Amino acid sequence: MAEEYLGIKDAAKYLKVSISTLRRWEKKGLITPMRTAGNRRRYTVRQLDDMLGLNTQKELGAVARRGLVIGYCRVSSSGQKADLERQAEVVANYCEKQGYQFRIIKDIGSGMNYKKKGLQELLRLVCEGGCSKIVVNYKDRLVRFGYELIETVCEEHNVDIEIINQTDDISYEEELREDVLAIITVFSAKLYGKRSHRNEQIVAENRKLFSKDDKKETKDSN
């Protein structure tokens, strides 16, 4: 009987892992594909079946965890810890109702800070095949800007993003103002210099404008 060979893309689908995970296993010596004359990887079905038969908890943790769902929750400051707990409760209740095997990652920091501990952990899990889905309460809880980039990374690793509420989250308008001010501050500093009078003037004027908006909204609501 002729041996069946699969390319790396089909082999990854067979094992239900990402292509990058398969390459990482090769570097660790867990699997060694044959090479064609054109230096393309080829895997036998027997090889792949042997991989599935390994002690997945020890050597192939990514395979064992591929059904894990990560609930990601974020607020911008430590003063919002109560909001963070409520957010985590909403996400956890949703995951339970869906019957997911899940864990919650809680993060504190601006939606424009991509070095937050929780976000870094989440991305490592995505890239290492450690989860199959991400659940967030609102889209901007993941990141304020650059969502499409995160989405592309997830798609590359066969990870879905599930957003519970598709509407805008008006409860974090103050956080959005601070993020917009942060953007203005960064670009103004680049244009005029961080300590220049012009930069300080621009930042102060914009803070005053946002403050006026707050007062107007309070007056209108009364």
Tell me what you see in this structure.
The chain has 222 residues and is an alpha/beta fold. The protein folds into three domains: 5-63, Multidrug-efflux Transporter Regulator, Chain: A, Domain 2; 65-168, Rossmann fold (3-Layer(aba) Sandwich); 171-221, Orthogonal Bundle (Helix Hairpins), CATH 1.10.287. It contains nine helices and seven strands. The protein has helices at 8-15, 19-27, 45-52, 61-64, 81-98, 117-127, 147-156, 173-192, 197-221, and strands at residues 5-6, 34-35, 41-44, 69-75, 102-108, 133-136, 160-163. The strands form two sheets. Strands 5-4-6-7 form a four-stranded parallel sheet, with helices on both faces. It has a three-stranded antiparallel sheet with strand order 1-3-2.
